[in-house]
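Data availability (excerpt). The following record was deposited with the supplementary files.
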Amino acid sequence: MKIGKLQDIYLTFKGINHSRKIAKIENFTEEEIEKYQVSKIKSLLIKASREISFYKNLFWEINFDPYKFDNLDELKRIPILDKDTIRNNYSALISGLRSKNSIQLSTSGTSGERLTVYTSPSQWMIEQAAIWRQWTMAGYRFRDKMAIIRSYSPKKEEPLYKKDYLRNWLYISPYHLDEANSKVFLNLLKHWKPKFIRGYPSSIFLLSRYAEKFNIRLNSLRAIFTASEKLTKDHRQQIENSFGVKVFDHYGQAEITVMIHEWDDHSGLRNLNYYGYPEFIPTENNNIYKLIATNLHNDVMPLIRYDTGDLVEISNESKNSKKPNIKEIYGRSDDFLSHHNGYDMPSVNFYTYFSNIKEVKRFQFIETKSDLELRIQIDDDVDKSSLKNFINDEMLLRFGKKVKIKITNQFIQNHDGKLSAVVKI
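Predicted structure:
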């Protein structure tokens, strides 16, 4: 079942209490971390071999005995699990013994391929504890005012913002961040005085641009929390300069395999070792790794050695550490665009390009088998024709082919309002 509001709040309170326990784990030595992870993964592997037909058959085929598991390197004997394998073996990956009271979660599906997974209430409690830990680093306390620019999609006739009175949160629609609405939202926030903002980087970035344009300052803010999209260096700088507070970035997925946080020293991102076990598979690019992940607690639908599809950059001095410093997360490895000559170009290149064109508020590439469309949202007072011609020449140079350019406020967003830079149809 999907998690309900009351269950979510109940598990959040349990997570708050549990956060005291995980605070101690954060200070473990590397040896203690490995011992903890081996213990959790061994328990997960044994349950999977008993209760889940996919793993029962797989372990038999590869002659893998989970009872003898005592070293993290042994996990590499298990094949990497990708999304196609999950879809083709879906029911065989779920524990019938534990699925009755499980919680249903779905990936965003912006590319048209949704994936639903199941987890236990105890894992969701750990999820909330992990998020709570990051928020408290920024000074958050329960019922502090927080503006949420995500997870709200108003239906026709519904208001563009709504209040969660129990949590003292104000939800703002990320679908309606045009100039007029953004001015209303900013003045509302100025009057309401939130201490924190949480949302998609692209939405908060857009709001920060309007805050500067209208000279509206939110002096009550203490920190901003971003998640679910790539936070570029330029977007971070714009948001922090405009709102005058630090950004705390967060990485996680609906598949709940690993969670990676920016801590209060803002020196990079770190994996939460009590939550999931990451493996970093080298790529052709120096210090760039594929992220393979195993959750330590989800015994309902364990995704063991799951290919997240994401790429991470690890600082050179910490690549061999159990606590690596992750400099940047590049997002999905399939967020690549095809050049006319057939090679791939990462979408991060275009974040950099458009960050230097101040008239462009946000962009999105929509790629089909035969066409490539670029949608851009621009300032109202810009010469549309000349800007469009300028970008068109640049895209022709970069792609070696004509790109259809559309100036619009309409973008493909998922049900929560998340915007991906690349959508493949």
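Summary of structural features: The chain has a mean pLDDT of 88.
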